[in-house]
Structures are given as structure tokens and as C-alpha cells.
Amino acid sequence: MKKDFKHIRNFLAQQQQRYLYRSPRLNHSPQQPDMVIDGEKILTFCSNDYLGLANHPELIQAFQQAAANYGVGSGAAHLINGHNIEHQRLEEALAAFTGRERALLFSTGYMANLGAIGALTSKGESLYQDRLNHASLMDAGRLSDAKMWRYQHSDMNNLQQRIARSTDTASMIVTDGVFSMDGDCANLKELANIATEHQSWLMVDDAHGFGVLGETGAGLVEQEGLSSDDVPVLIATLGKGAGTAGAFIAGDHDLIEFLIQSARTYIFTTAMPPAIAAAGCKSLELMQKETWRRNHLQQLITQFKQGADQLGLPMMPSDTAIQPILVGGSDKALCYSQQLLSQGILVTAIRPPTVPAGEARLRITLSAAHTTQHVEQLLSALGKLNFSTEK
Ligand SMILES: *Cc1c(COP(=O)(O)O)cnc(C)c1O
Predict the structure, then answer these.
(1) Nearest CA to 194 among 224, 235, 155, 236?
(2) CATH fold of 74-272, please?
(3) Could you check whether 22-55+291-384 and 74-272 share the same CATH topology?
(4) What is the mean pLDDT of residues 63-69?
(5) SS3 readout for 73-120
(6) Which of 57, 59, 47 is nearest to 370 (CA)?
(7) Ligand 1 neighbour 179 (Cβ under 6 A)
(8) Which reaction does it catalyse (predicted)?
(9) Does residue 310 carry a pLDDT above 90?
(10) Contacts of 57 (CB under 8 A, 6+ apart)
(11) What does the pLDDT read at residue 214?
């Protein structure tokens, strides 16, 4: 392709015509339900700050204290001289919280996924991924030397068939814990059985379950009562339920030592700022102490689902804080999102390629920072929209 701006301009025009053009909104507030966005006061239902910790005063204080002690930049990669005591503390706390021997920090979830899949797969092996796994997992699969197979969403028969059809050794099965754009959960017990049967790694990316699901908030793996033998590679991000930034991989001592030697996105990148790690430690403490956050969130989910049912909205089958309304066309999703905005409510339209073509949706997310009145307000605004069911 020739490097010219004509091609770029054509592409931009096409995206506009297809209702696929995207631009960031300018936000002047902390992450919380009531925000000022593009200069307007607005009630938001699209954040992944599920527990309402992103703007918690104790997190801010931990961050400030660590910045005073250790400065801002970590200065180097972990293996050079960037591994600060705050990183070490957070890794130990994450290992304890998830019930695993060790944990390893990454700067983002995207990088944790690239690092883990890159290190744990090689040529002549097969990698199996749920079709609806997060884009970072798909990209990791594309970069990997293993052959990637995508099985139908949560279809265990389809996964078994694909494994049976392949002549390579099965090396790894990878799934989102809670599917990020759908809100449903993977069948982890069945996946663990299949992985054991084929002597394959099972890796779970619990970005949307961590902090939110399970008795203590350790995530979907805890909720399903599975051990580190069942799910040897556990990944979660800290920028969602934990309200900070970064990600971690938790597992056995040997797995983590292996990743330290081999995961390129661990080795060749600057460690996250120590103050972020300090805030992460505080966040883990609050997750465990303030159990009301999970309980309240659960109540809001129930309240919302009941209200949405009464309104007859085309909801997707989800029991988590992610409650998408499936509308189909990107034009419609944008239109509904705009109509909500004119009522003072922000729910973003999620369009391809984030979701499959023809499956655009309004992705509503609830947070422990919302009140029951907020949810009533949302339901009343949704009640004023005219959802047609034809595509
Ligand atoms: C958000 C997300 C990621 C990426 O995490 P970041 O820390 O934002 O890079 C990875 N996997 C899933 C399932 C996600 O939802």
C-alpha cells in the first residue's frame, strides 16, 4: 500500500458512513458515577471501576505517600533496578489473596496476556481460545508461534472437536473469566477438566471478575471453587475492579520464575510507578475489608435486571455488573446512546470490531459507587427509548 493521505482520508470517511468512527470524550472528573464530560454534568454507566475504588481517599493517600517516598518514575525494568519494595509488597499480597505461591506484576493486562501466551506456547503446539476472548488475548495468539484455534463461544463440544482434529500437542486453553462485552462467565469447571484430560495449560483472564466475584473477591476461580491445579495460569488486571492500573499473573513458584526469564513484556519494559503499586496494595486491603461493596453491587445488578425485564429490553444473559443491551446495528447503538446522553446519562455504544458485526450494543456497567436512585434514573431513561427488535 502506498503511503498517502488519500487512503487514510478514505478510511476515515468510510468509518463515518458505517457509524464506526470513534473519538475519546474529554473527562474533567475523577472516575465516579457523576462526572463532567465534554463540559456537561452526566451520570455514567460505562466504567469498569466496579467497586468504586478508583477515587477512594485511602488509595489516593497511599499513592501520595509512596510518591513522596519513592518519587514518580520507577526508572527501569524490574530486572534492571526498577523493582521497588512497593512492587514486591503488591506481588506478595496478590499471591496471598489469590491463594497461589507467587504473583508477577505487568504494566497492563494487554502486556500480561502477550507475555504469558508468548512464553508458554511454542511451534508445533496448539492454542485454543474462546471466540469472544479479549482482543489482547487474540493478539497474543497471533504473535505466538503456536497454531491458534478459536472455538465457538463457551461451546465445550466445539472445543473438544477442535482438539481432536488437531495433530499438534494441545498446549494451552485460554478464556476470559467474565466475558468483557457480554457479561457472561466461562464454564471454568468444564474447561479445567478438558485441560487436565489433554495435559494442557488453562489460562483464565479474570479482568472483570477480580475484586467482584467470589466470597472474598478473588474472582471467578474462587467463586467456582477451583484450585491452582485446575487453573494454573491466572491473570487479572488492576485497572478495573481494583481501581488502579496494571495487571498480574498468579501461579506456582516455578511458573512465575519461568515467566521472569521468558515473558518479553515483563523483561523489556519499565516497571509501573511504585506509587501505583502502593495504591494497589491498599485496594486489595479495601476489597477484603469492605465487603459491602460487593453486596451493594449485587443488589444493584438484581434491581437493574428486574427493571430491564419489566421494560422488555433486549438484554443479554448476564448476572454480572456488565449488562449489555443488544441492539444490532451500529447506527442504532449510536442513536440510543445519543438519546440517553440527551437525558444526562452516558452509556457507550460498543460497535465492531470490539463486538461481531451486527451485534452492536449498549454496554451498561454498574458499580458499587452507584446508588439505587442512580439505577432508577437509568431505567427511567431507558424506558423512554423505543427499542425496536428487528435488526
Ligand atoms: C481490559 C482487559 C484487558 C486489558 O487490560 P489493561 O490493563 O486495560 O491493558 C485484558 N483482558 C480483558 C478480558 C480485559 O477486559
Answers:
(1) 155
(2) Aspartate Aminotransferase; domain 2 (3.40.640)
(3) no
(4) 98
(5) CCCCCHHHHHCCHHHHHHHHHHHHHHCCCEEEEECCHHHHHHHHHHHH
(6) 47
(7) no
(8) 6-carboxyhexanoyl-[ACP] + L-alanine + H(+) = (8S)-8-amino-7-oxononanoate + holo-[ACP] + CO2
(9) yes
(10) none
(11) 96
Pocket probe mutation, ligand 1, options 31, 139, 237, max atoms within 8 Å of Cβ:
237
Sequence-distant (≥ 6) Cβ neighbours of residue 220 within 8 angstroms: 177, 178, 185, 186, 188, 204, 206, 209, 213, 214
176 alpha carbon to ligand 1 midpoint, in Å?
10
pLDDT value of residue 390: 46
- Note the pLDDT of residue 255: 98
Catalytic residues, by residue number, are 180, 208, 240
pLDDT score of 344: 96
94-140 residue pLDDT tens = 999 999 999 999 999 999 999 999 999 999 999 999 999 999 999 99
Domain boundaries, the chain: 22-55+291-384, 74-272
Distance 4 CA to ligand 1 centre (A): 33
Distance CA 226, CA 97 (A): 14
Query: How far apart, in Å, are the Cα atoms of 345 and each of 46, 166, 223, 253?
Result: 10, 48, 32, 46
What is the CATH number assigned to the segment(s) 22-55+291-384? 3.90.1150.10
- Percent with pLDDT over 90 in the chain: 92
Residue 63's CB is within 10 A of a number of other CB atoms, namely: 20
The pLDDT-based confidence of 4 (bands split at 50, 70, 90) is confident
Nearest CA to ligand 1 atom 5: 109
Give the residues across from 237 on adjacent strands: 247
User: Three-class SS of residue 234?
Assistant: strand
